[in-house]
Write a structure and sequence with these properties.
- By secondary structure, the protein is an alpha/beta fold.
- The chain has two domains: about 170 residues, D-Maltodextrin-Binding Protein, domain 2, CATH 3.40.190.10; about 160 residues, D-Maltodextrin-Binding Protein, domain 2.
- The chain is about 40% helix and about 15% strand.
- The strands form two sheets. Strands 1, 2, 3, 4, 6, 7, 8, 9 and 11 form a nine-stranded mixed sheet that branches.
Length: about 350
């Protein structure tokens, strides 16, 4: 970035920080990432690797994919983060918000895979679910009728007569979005009338298929996936929903729950046979690349540690296929603006 652009960036930063009460501190000396709690341990590990090379460690915050993207899209300048970590792809509406706020060029890099895992305590009943079971248990109005189910047996006679108690992510989380898209909607669309509703009224379909009950059967546990692990250890009859890496890290306390007969494992997520498998992304604000010290190094560092025998695998990430890694390594080394035409 030339001197004029650097000065312009600093000027934008001054205005932005002043508006946020930042006073005269008009620039940053390290990269800043926000977003997904699922990606948080991986992003933190990459930040630590970057710091070993003598660069100031990037700041990594976990506040949920949706909340992180909102912060990322709020503007350009030192008061705004450089990277959004996301456990789902950015939405068309979010990309449009970015554009409105002057965040024009965004690089999209797929950094790996994950799955939304369902789990129970080690001494739990060994429950086995389908997307339809989950939908009937958690939807506010399954198939358009108020949810009166109290136990899993109410949902499906083949299931145990245990109270429905599911600890899961909040609405700001990409894991919650994935739960809605990959599991709840699939269960909802098992009814032909719901499929027909999608063609007729997409908004009504989304509401009836993805709105979660608020009577205590589903407990919003914030962005602290480790808190869910603790709750399941305390109550083996409860169920938790979180990123697969948290299940893998806690196999001494937890066991995975099968969905459609498929257990959440590294292999079933890697080949997408597990219904909750999903890609993981980082989004990079290209206007910041030449102005924020260490940002380019932070972005490039991902591709150096996401291989089959490297750091992120050791941390629990499911490694993306070779062709996906190769394509995204090129972008990580030389970021280019993403094509938003396929966003939904």
């Amino acid at each position: 970035m030339n001197r004029f652009k650097t000065i312009a960036f600093a000027a934008i930063s001054t205005v932005a920080l002043a508006a946020c009460g930042g006073g005269s501190n008009a620039s940053r000396d390290a990269a800043w990432a926000v977003g997904s709690s699922t990606l948080y341990p991986f992003a933190s590990a990459v930040a630590e690797e970057v710091a070993k090379g003598g660069i100031k460690a990037p700041k990594v915050e976990q506040n949920g994919t949706g909340a992180g993207i909102k912060l990322f899209c709020a503007g350009v300048g030192a008061a705004h983060p450089d990277i959004a970590d996301a456990s789902r792809r950015i939405k068309k509406s979010e990309f449009e918000d970015c554009q409105k706020n002057g965040v024009k060029d965004i690089a999209e890099i797929q950094v790996g895979l994950d799955g939304i895992a369902f789990a129970e305590g080690k001494t739990g009943p060994g429950i086995a679910l389908t997307p339809t079971d989950v939908y009937k248990a958690l939807a506010a109005n399954p198939f358009g009728k108020p949810n009166t189910a109290k136990t899993w047996k109410d949902v499906n006679p083949a299931l145990p007569a245990l109270p429905i108690l599911v600890y899961g992510p909040p609405t700001t989380s990409g894991t919650r979005d994935a739960l809605a898209e990959l599991i709840l909607t699939k269960g909802c669309d098992s009814d032909p009338a719901m499929k027909a509703l999608k063609e007729k009224d997409k908004d009504a379909h989304k509401k009836v298929c993805t709105e979660v009950r608020e009577d205590g059967a589903y407990v919003d546990s914030g962005e602290e996936d480790n808190l869910i692990v603790q709750k399941l250890a305390e109550n083996p009859n409860a169920i938790g929903v979180f990123g697969f890496s948290f299940l893998e890290e806690n196999m001494d306390k937890l066991k995975g729950i099968t969905i459609d007969g498929i257990e959440p494992t590294y292999a079933s997520i890697s080949d997408f046979s597990y219904p909750g498998a999903r890609p993981l992304y980082i989004y990079v604000k290209m206007a910041h690349l030449g102005a924020v010290p260490g940002l380019k190094d932070f972005v490039a560092a991902w591709s150096k540690v996401w291989g089959p025998d490297q750091l992120l695998k050791q941390k629990g990430m499911v490694i993306a296929p070779d062709d996906v890694r190769a394509k995204n390594a090129v972008i990580a080394a030389n970021p280019v603006a993403m094509d938003a035409s396929t966003l939904k």
